[in-house]
């Protein structure tokens, strides 16, 4: 057992625990904060894989921007434990069933599939910003540009909805 | 299962010491910035400023700290206690985290080891700073929400939206800088300036935008909307007392120190000594590293002074003026700066 394995193990435990806490917490603000912890531990995984760019972008975009918006909405709508609607029992049961069957399918798919390549740990420059940029702007330039148009249209849409009086 | 871990203890010790020194240094400097703030304010307003505790009032920050520690600690009944304590802690943590990627000097050669005066020379230096800065919002938001007070909440939401808005212009101003250096690594950015001249010569507009955004990110006047006393009583830390309040105020000063250091590093050559070619001096490398560190500190202190100067000169913006400046002036300017820089770089390379 070396230090990388210890790191990956503890990161995975933190990720799973905080992800569970997102669902279990009664208070929506606590859920969001646990979700931020989850994002951090996922970024930790990226760093172990030497994908520094992915790690930091994950933090900037998800933990730094999107979660702040979540918090905004929750704080402005003053959601807390008392105002959280109680779902009815059958709905909860249906949720557990569908989630469980999804888990079953994933486990079944991974169970027989053979692992083609092991992830490179601590080395490899695939996740570094220079490599990533060159790949995005040469091999994957068309999908990249198309997705940027998608973002642009989403932005324009948001402005149009916001302007409607 | 045998636990076979190989750890380079000398390396761990070296980094640990470096972290301890830099964090202590930024705490002490932040402490004396509070003193400098009062002295500068007094100077600008023709007063004497603090002069009772110790010679020239130099012990004043210690007295303030002692006072804050001994104040009664009040946690509002209706607040959520854990988050109430988490708020100021997060503010302090994010304030001190940023110093990790700043190159404080070249490297020292001690005990047969080369000790780099930078804690972590990561591939994504600038983005790391951005990541930490964007997390700084949580200290304010969590504290403001956990206080369970509508003024705190309003101030927290104001502060957070201000920080998010100004982060955009800051990022766009930095993209122009990155196109010039071709790297996000802080050490490479400094070396590029040592070789080709400081970035302020090539990027004056970029620096101006960055500086304005840094003021806004630190919640300093004229952007201290989050603690506008006449509208929001005391802002997001209204319910805080004792050292928890102290931490919020203190984090602001640490942020000022770190952002001054970042500005000196990105635009003013970092540890580069101006107007001379120090490589030709032929003196001891350790001494040179220390001189470089002192030069960086001098640049940082200059920016700290500018921060204080602005605070005691310019009145606060109104909220709509703040948003107009951020979204309708700084972002377009930063975009133009970016496009022009890109065009010039392409033209020169052809």
How would you explain this protein's 3D organization?
The complex is a heterodimer of chains A (165) and B (350). Chain A has six helices and no strands. Helix content of chain A is 76%, strand content 0%. The relative contact order of chain A is 0.09. Chain A has helices at residues 3-24, 28-48, 52-76, 89-112, 129-138, 141-163. With 350 residues, chain B is mostly helical. Chain B has one domain (9-349). In chain B, 67% of the residues lie in helices and 2% in strands. Chain B has helices at 9-44, 60-70, 81-97, 125-146, 150-181, 186-196, 199-202, 204-217, 229-232, 242-267, 285-311, 319-349, and strands at residues 107-110, 113-116. In chain B, helix 1 (9-44) runs parallel beside helix 11. The A-B interface holds A 1-3, 6, 27, 29, 33, 36, 52-53, 56-57, 59-60, 63-65, 68, 71-72, 75-76, 128-129 and B 1-7, 80, 83, 122-124, 127-128, 130-131, 134-135, 137-138, 141-142, 145, 153, 156-157, 160-161, 164, 184.
List the helices and strands and how they pair.
The complex is a heterodimer of chains A (165) and B (350).
Chain A: H1 3-24, H2 28-48, H3 52-76, H4 89-112, H5 129-138, H6 141-163
Chain B: H1 9-44, H2 60-70, H3 81-97, E1 107-110, E2 113-116, H4 125-146, H5 150-181, H6 186-196, H7 199-202, H8 204-217, H9 229-232, H10 242-267, H11 285-311, H12 319-349
Antiparallel strand pairs in B: 1-2
Helix pairs in contact in B: 1-10, 1-11, 2-10, 3-4, 3-10, 4-5, 5-8, 5-12, 8-10, 8-12, 10-11
What proportion strand of chain A? under 5%
Share of residues in helices of chain B: 55-70%
Task: Give the helix proportion of chain A (percent range).
Answer: over 70%
Tally the beta strands of chain B.
2
Report on the biggest sheet of chain B: 2 strands, antiparallel
Low-confidence stretches of chain A: none
Taken together, the total number of domains of chain B comes to 1
What distance lies between the first and last C-alpha atoms of chain A, to the nearest angstrom?
Answer: 62 Å
Return the average pLDDT of chain B rounded to an integer.
84
Can you tell me the CATH topology of the largest domain in chain A?
Answer: Four Helix Bundle (Hemerythrin (Met), subunit A)
Low-confidence runs of chain B (pLDDT<50, min 5 residues)?
none
Gyration radius of chain B, in Å: 21 Å
Order of helices and strands of chain B: HHHEEHHHHHHHHH
* Rough outline of chain A: globular
Shape summary of chain B: globular
